[in-house]
Design brief:
The complex is a heterodimer of chains A (219) and B (227). By secondary structure, chain A is of the alpha+beta class. Chain A is 42% helix and 13% strand. Chain A has helices at 2-13, 34-37, 71-90, 95-120, 172-186, 202-217, and strands at residues 44-50, 56-61, 142-144, 149-154, 160-165. In chain A, helix 1 runs antiparallel to helix 3 and helix 5 (172-186) runs antiparallel to helix 6 (202-217). Chain B is built from six helices and four strands. Chain B has a four-stranded antiparallel β-sheet with strand order 1-2-4-3. In chain B, helix 2 (60-85) crosses helix 4 (158-170). Chain B is globular. Classes of the chains: A alpha+beta (219), B alpha+beta (227). Chain B: This is Trafficking protein particle complex subunit.
């Protein structure tokens, strides 16, 4: 259900290209040329940014000798991932149990704070700590295969950053954080960028390239 | 605050000066230890200013003109403030083009951006003695801005050009100031040599503010030089 919805959302942006959304694409987005690169460490391989409607707004690969997908497949990949992510965010075997636990806790807190305020006699509403919301479900975060590791970071506004690294790459969280920071700086503060549209910012490209080169060279 | 309360019997009209001679105009509004503003907030504000200025424009020049107009009053007001903050001996307004440009390069730039401008040049073309160039390798206003390819002549530092123009106009040196990117467009000619090419590599956002004084300014300048 969600899968089709997301593909429809994506096709708004790229309606000409996707005529038949075929989902039978290779599960490997970027395949390494296995014969000569088996023992070469790659570091960060690729970055994809997906907007909240499931459209691909940025894709870039880092380094030489990578097999490329054609642009249509990238769009399908982005839409598919968006759908899968939405499904994984709702999959939860412990959902009922957790909800019951959460509401019981809330009841308890409410009761506690109410009695507290009567005791104090201040009458200024609830004295206790603010009721907390449960963490929103985060969905798929990491996917690992023998060739690469995919880390997904979902922002508060629903933009998804996908960072493809080799399986040995350490501190992907830090790299992801930095990429998000660069995006916040050089894309969101650019007066010529329109929200939800493909990212075409020279400055972002330049800073991202130099940052990724820095981490790839430091290993 | 105690020295601001009126002394009984000695009611003086006008502005009262504290005993140490420092008025509120000598102090920045922000009195935190580092009197700095958030660059992110400024970037968002400036982004909205550019967005506002690009509504219903017919050409890039139109947009630059609007940004220029936004900066102009700031320059007029800053001139007064900066001269007032100078030590009493040098509080006179600039009388020659060189002192004016020096004021802009040093005081104005330091006040606005926390550092002096990177260069000040006179046009080498003898047919254009009225043109001067103030160079900034990395304008603060352009820090996060990537200009799309179809607007490649645009430089959003036109806003800063407007401020410069305000300062020039305010000190009775009427001039037209425009901002030009020289970071990448100019294909490196052989005459420029390696140094120029390297500068382009290092400073992709390098901006030249071209100050073109009106003819009467030059006329007065030559007259003063003779006298």
């Amino acid at each position: 259900m969600r899968l089709t919805a997301s593909i429809r959302g994506k096709s708004v942006i790229c309606e000409k290209k996707i005529t038949k959304p075929s989902l039978a694409i290779s599960p490997l987005p970027i395949c390494l040329n296995t014969e000569d690169t088996n023992n070469i460490r790659r570091g960060v391989i690729a970055l994809l940014i997906i907007n909240k409607a499931g459209g691909l707004i940025y894709n870039r690969t880092f380094g030489e000798g990578l097999n490329q997908l054609n642009s249509n497949d990238y769009l399908v990949l982005a839409g598919t991932f968006h759908g899968v992510h939405a499904i994984t965010a709702r999959l939860n075997p412990l959902r009922e149990h957790q909800a019951a636990h959460y509401y019981a806790q809330q009841q308890q807190q409410h009761h506690h704070s109410a009695s507290g305020s009567i005791g104090a006699g201040s009458g200024g509403g609830q004295g206790g700590p603010l009721p907390s919301r449960p963490e929103p479900p985060s969905g798929l975060e990491v996917m690992e295969t023998e060739n690469f590791r995919l880390q997904c970071f979902n922002t508060q506004t629903g933009t998804k950053f996908l960072l493809f690294t080799d399986t040995m790459q350490a501190n992907v969280d830090v790299a992801m954080r930095k990429v998000y920071e660069l995006y916040a700086d050089y894309v969101m503060k650019n007066p010529f960028y329109q929200l939800e549209m493909p990212v075409r910012c020279d400055m972002f490209d330049r800073k991202l390239n130099s940052y990724i080169r820095e981490i790839n060279n430091s290993r | 605050m105690s020295n601001m309360t009126p002394v009984k019997g000695k009611e003086q009209p006008g502005l009262r000066y504290p005993s140490n001679g420092k008025t509120i105009y000598h102090r920045p509004l922000n009195r935190a230890k580092t009197s700095e503003l958030s660059q992110a907030s400024f970037a968002y504000l400036f982004s909205e200013m550019v967005g506002y200025a690009s509504k219903r424009i017919v050409s890039i020049q139109d947009l630059e003109k609007r940004l220029n107009t936004q900066g102009h009053p700031i320059g007029l007001k800053l001139l007064d403030l900066l001269l007032h903050r100078e030590p009493a001996r040098t509080q006179t307004r600039p009388l020659t083009i060189i002192t004016l440009l020096h004021l802009i390069k040093q005081q104005l730039w330091t006040h606005l951006f926390g550092r002096a401008a990177d260069g000040l040049e006179k046009s080498s073309d003898p047919t254009r003695p009225d043109e001067y160039m103030i160079i900034d390798n990395e304008p603060l206003v352009n820090r996060y801005i990537s200009v799309p390819r179809d607007m490649s002549q645009l430089n959003c530092a036109a806003f800063v050009a407007g401020i410069i123009e305000g300062v020039c106009d305010g000190s009775a040196f009427p001039a037209r100031v425009t901002a030009h990117s020289v970071g990448k467009q100019q294909a490196a000619p052989a005459a420029e040599g390696e140094e120029g090419g390297e500068g382009k590599e290092m400073w992709p956002g390098r901006t030249v503010f071209l100050v073109k004084f009106l003819p009467e300014v030059l006329e007065r300048e030559s007259f003063l030089a003779k006298g």
